[in-house]
Design brief:
The chain is of the alpha+beta class. The protein has helices spanning about 1-25, 55-60, 65-75, 150-155, 165-180, 390-405; strands at about 45-50, 90-95, 100-110, 115-120, 125-130, 135-145, 195-200, 210-220, 225-230, 240, 260-265, 265-270, 280, 285, 295, 300-305, 315-320, 325-335, 340-345, 350, 360-370, 370-375, 415, 430-435. It has six helices and 24 strands. Strands 11, 14, 15, 16, 17, 18, 19, 20, 21 and 22 form a ten-stranded antiparallel β-sheet that branches. A five-stranded antiparallel β-sheet has the order 1-2-3-4-5, covered by helices on one side. Strands 6-7-8-9-10 form a five-stranded antiparallel β-sheet, with helices on both faces. β7 (about 195-200) and β8 (about 210-220) form a beta hairpin. The N and C termini lie far apart (about 75 Å).
Length: about 425
C-alpha cells in the first residue's frame, strides 16, 4: 500500500514537471518567417455599360461578339427575360478573358432584385437567374408632426440612413395600416406623434426590397391608435389589430388613393369650376398626379366601366348592403377590370386623369347606398373580424413581444398600456389607461 502511494506521488511529480516544461515551450511564439507578395492577374476584365435611350440589348453587344454568337446569347437570355422590355439605364456588365479579350460572360441587371447571368461554353451560351441577396433588420423610429406628417417622416433624423424613396415607402406603409382610423391628408395636426418598429429586407446597396410594420402607434389630437401585426393562418397574409385584438380594418377604406390632398369636399351647393354655376357636389375630390393608381375601397363587383357624361371615364362598384362606390375622371382603366369583374379592397381599378368636365388631374369619389349619396368622410364604417378565438393564446404572446418593441422607443403624450396575462387565462385583459412607458 505504501509503495503504491509513493509511486503515485512520484508519477504526479513527473507529470507536474512535464506540464511546467510544456507551458514554458508554449509561451514562446515560433517565428516562421514571411513570404513575398505574389501578384495574381485578374481572372477576367469587366466593362459596365448602361442602355441608352432607344438602345437595344443587341446594339450594345455589337462588336463584342459575332452575329451567330449574339443570336445564341439572346436566345439564352429569353429563358428569363424579354430583351425588348429592358429599360433605359439597365446595367449590363461584359466579362472578357484577359489573355485574348474574348467575351466569356454577360450580366444583365433586369431589376434591383434579379440579374440574368450569361456564360459561354463549348456548346454556346447558357443562362441563369441570380436573386439579389438580402439581409433582414428592424428599424425603430419616433417623431412629432410639426407641419405635415410627410415632412415629419422624410426629415426624421432617425431615418437619415434610408434612401428618400424608402422613407416614402415607410409613409405608404403607415398610411395603409392606419387608413381606416384616420385620413393623413386632412386629420393630422401639429403636435401629433408616432413611433413604430418596421422589419425590412435590405439589398447590398442599402435599399429596401420589402418590409412590414411589426407594431405602430399614432397619437392624433391626444387619441392613441395602435396596430400590431398578426398572421393567424401563417401564410404571410396577416393583418393588423389593436391592443384589444380588434381588427383595424373596416368594410371600406377611408379614401381610394394613398396619402393625397383633398381639393373638393361634399357639398349641397358649390360653384362648378368649369360650368361656373352653383350645383351640388356629392363626393370628394382628391388632387393627384395623372396616372396615380386608384384603389377599390371595398370588395364588390364592377357594374359600370366606361364614359359617364361629365364624370368622364368612370368605374362604379356594387358592394353588399346596397352600397355603390363611384370613381370618376380617370385617365384609363386597369385592363383586367371589366364589367362584372369581382374586385377586392385595395385592388387597383384605374388611374387618375382629367376626363370629362375637369380643370386638372384629380379623382372624384362618391359613396351611395340604395341610390342615396353620403359624404364619404362622415360615413360610420363597420370594423373587420377580430383575432379568432382559437388563436387568442398565440396572439397574446406575439402582442407582448411586439408591443415590447414599441416600449423600447421613447414617446410623448398619452398612452394605453396592457398587462400580459398568464397563458392559461381564458381571455386577454383589456388595455387600461396608464402612464408613460
Amino acid at each position: 500500500m505504501k509503495q503504491s502511494i509513493t509511486s503515485r506521488i512520484q508519477a504526479g511529480g513527473i507529470a507536474s514537471a512535464v506540464i511546467v516544461l510544456l507551458s514554458a515551450c508554449v509561451s514562446e511564439t515560433p517565428d516562421v518567417g514571411s513570404l513575398e507578395a505574389v501578384w495574381v492577374p485578374a481572372a477576367e476584365r469587366t466593362e459596365v455599360h448602361a442602355l441608352g435611350r432607344g438602345q437595344t440589348f443587341g446594339a450594345l453587344l455589337y462588336g463584342a461578339i459575332d452575329a451567330n454568337q449574339q443570336a445564341s446569347l439572346l436566345l439564352a437570355f429569353q429563358e428569363h427575360a424579354d430583351p425588348r422590355r429592358l429599360r433605359e439605364r439597365t446595367e449590363v456588365t461584359l466579362r472578357y478573358l484577359p489573355e485574348n479579350n474574348e467575351l466569356r460572360g454577360v450580366d444583365v441587371a433586369v431589376s434591383k432584385d434579379r440579374t440574368v447571368r450569361l456564360d459561354r461554353d463549348i456548346l454556346g451560351w447558357n443562362s441563369q437567374l441570380i436573386q439579389t441577396p438580402i439581409f433582414v433588420d428592424t428599424i425603430y423610429a419616433m417623431g412629432e408632426v410639426t407641419e405635415t406628417f410627410w415632412g415629419s417622416v422624410v426629415n426624421n433624423e432617425k431615418l437619415t440612413s434610408l434612401t428618400f424613396e424608402d422613407r416614402n415607402l415607410l409613409i405608404d406603409h403607415l398610411d395603409r395600416v392606419f387608413q381606416w382610423q384616420m385620413d393623413f391628408s386632412r386629420q393630422i395636426r401639429p403636435g401629433d406623434n408616432y413611433r413604430f418598429a418596421f422589419e425590412r429586407e435590405v439589398r447590398p446597396d442599402g435599399s429596401m426590397r420589402e418590409g412590414r410594420l411589426l407594431a405602430a402607434e399614432f397619437v392624433n389630437s391626444g387619441t392613441p391608435y395602435h396596430a400590431v401585426y398578426f398572421d393567424p393562418n401563417g401564410d404571410g397574409r396577416g393583418s393588423y389589430f389593436d391592443l384589444d385584438g380588434e381588427s383595424v380594418r373596416r368594410a371600406f377604406l377611408l379614401k381610394p388613393l394613398s396619402y393625397r390632398r383633398i381639393s373638393g369636399r361634399f357639398s349641397s351647393g358649390r360653384r362648378h369650376p368649369v360650368l361656373n354655376t352653383i350645383r351640388a357636389h356629392r363626393g370628394i375630390d382628391y388632387a393627384a398626379d395623372r396616372g396615380t393608381p386608384v384603389m377599390a375601397t371595398s370588395d364588390g363587383v364592377v357594374v359600370h366601366r366606361g364614359s359617364k357624361g361629365s364624370f368622364g371615364n368612370t368605374v362604379e362598384i356594387r358592394h353588399p348592403n346596397g352600397w355603390v362606390t363611384r370613381y370618376a375622371h380617370l385617365s384609363r382603366f386597369r385592363s383586367d377590370v371589366t364589367l362584372g369583374t369581382r374586385v377586392h379592397q385595395s385592388d387597383v381599378i384605374g388611374y387618375v386623369g382629367m376626363s370629362g368636365l375637369a380643370t386638372g388631374p384629380h379623382l372624384h369619389y362618391e359613396m351611395l347606398q340604395n341610390g342615396r349619396q353620403f359624404d364619404p368622410l362622415s360615413v360610420d364604417l363597420p370594423a373587420g373580424d377580430p383575432v379568432p378565438a382559437d388563436d387568442m393564446v398565440r396572439w397574446r404572446g406575439e402582442l407582448t413581444e411586439r408591443y415590447d418593441l414599441l416600449k423600447m422607443i421613447p414617446r410623448r403624450g398619452p398612452v394605453r398600456t396592457f398587462v400580459a396575462e398568464d397563458e392559461d387565462a381564458p381571455a386577454p385583459e383589456a388595455p387600461q389607461p396608464g402612464g408613460g412607458v
